[in-house]
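S.,

Sequence below, as promised.
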Amino acid sequence: MRTLPLAALTLLLACSPSCSRSEGVTQTLLPPPSRDGWLSETPFPGYNLISPLKSTDVFLVNLEGEVVHRWETKVEPGNSVYLTDRGTLYRCERIEDNKPFRGGGIGGAIQEIDADGTILWDYRFADDTRHAHHDIEIMPNGNILILAWVMHTREEALANGRDPELLRGEMFWPDSIFEIKPLPNNDAEIVWEWHSWDHLIQDFDKDANFFGVVSEHPERIDINGDRDPELMSEEEQDAEFEHLQALGYAGGAKEESDGKPPVKRPDRPPPKNGDEKRDDRDRRKTRDADWMHTNGIDYNAELDQIVISVRRFDEAWVIDHSTTTTEAASSEGGRYGRGGDLLYRWGNPSAYGMGSAEDRVLVVQHDVQWIEGGRLGAGGFLAFNNGRGRLGGDYSTIEEWWPPINEAGEYVIEAGTPFAPTQSSWTYMADTPSDFYSSFISGVQRLPNGNTLICSGEKGNVFEINSAGKTVWQWDCDLVPNEKPEESKEKKRGIRKNALFRVTRIAPDHAGLEALRAKGLEIPRSVAMPIAH
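The prediction came back faster than expected:
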């Protein structure tokens, strides 16, 4: 959960449900906060909460790289983990027996774990119609927001105007958000839902549903808006999936063979036999199904809004959470009067017909979030911009931007123009850009002293920079032993066992750490500060 400064809170009192397009009406936008006075030469003290993708354990690690506490579990993560104020962990668990869902970031269950590893709550969110993945968000009232794939068929997608070139498999999994209230006995109640499927538009097929001019409705989601400048071949997709499997990021259950060859299509190779080949066959069934690949979710309690990181669209989307579930399925209602339509989107105007690939700022990004109150850039957005397929070469950056929000608490778009700003307000990149690169996973966190914690996930490299971009602390994760080169195919391919979805810095006086100390754990309140490398 992110919080905003007091100035942002007061503007919400005047919030009214009106259109966010200015259409000739003068709008007064809130200015971004000052960046003066935030330069720090030392890292922010605390502990790093880490859940390596290839480990069944969760670690609390000090800035010297020493483990001060370990939570032992039996299943690899799927993928995020959070420390609660009561000293427990909420951990996404990886479920792979739920057919036919499979892919990067697969999850399926949420556990609450006590300090000694006791499982206090174990809730499965995986059946034949939906499957949780990637991330959750713990809300102030104790409820949990869940990202989930929802099952639709190829026929349903094509009937809604999906370009067949972009859907070579038999399934289509648009993302949804479910808010659950945890209940005893490993149960939960769904109290709110939002479905991307309810907010589609397309201009590909006049005879299909939701036909309209995409650029005239940026609040809606183009069912073909995920089109990349260059589509990956099936061979490239297979190679990527195998790479993600080796890192512990992708997986899923295999379908049992029915003895019949898969349906032949012009763009598919002939069917193959054998258990090992069945995995390839299942992949064809689900190819292109993960339409959005949403990889992160954050909640802003003061605005009562949700932001999600939609990797396949190269965008961040903001949604009104104040709606009822019925309103969230429509274009009316809620605090901002727009129902479940998008309040704001940013990163790739070509996704809604107002630009080209050259206009993208975000490129397969992760971990989009609001910057918390009292921190540098509070109220703005922050993201790890992976940069795979970026025009000009593959390299990663950190992007911060200030949205065009007016005094009524709404996001403003000038008629006929894309959502502002056109560029980030602050960007971090390495002096030699290619030196900082993670093609997938990864995360970022703005710290209370103005520094930025960066997790370059694929390599397991974690480092902290100050507001001038100077590295003040760094560490290579070594929590999972790597096999000797001759014993490990992954090692020969340059794959490390310490890939990280995300890392979170926990302050020494965090309520969760105080709760752990009350349970008898020896976690120092005074943290030694290492010398920057």
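The CA atoms of residues 305 and 320 lie 5 Å apart.

Coffee later?
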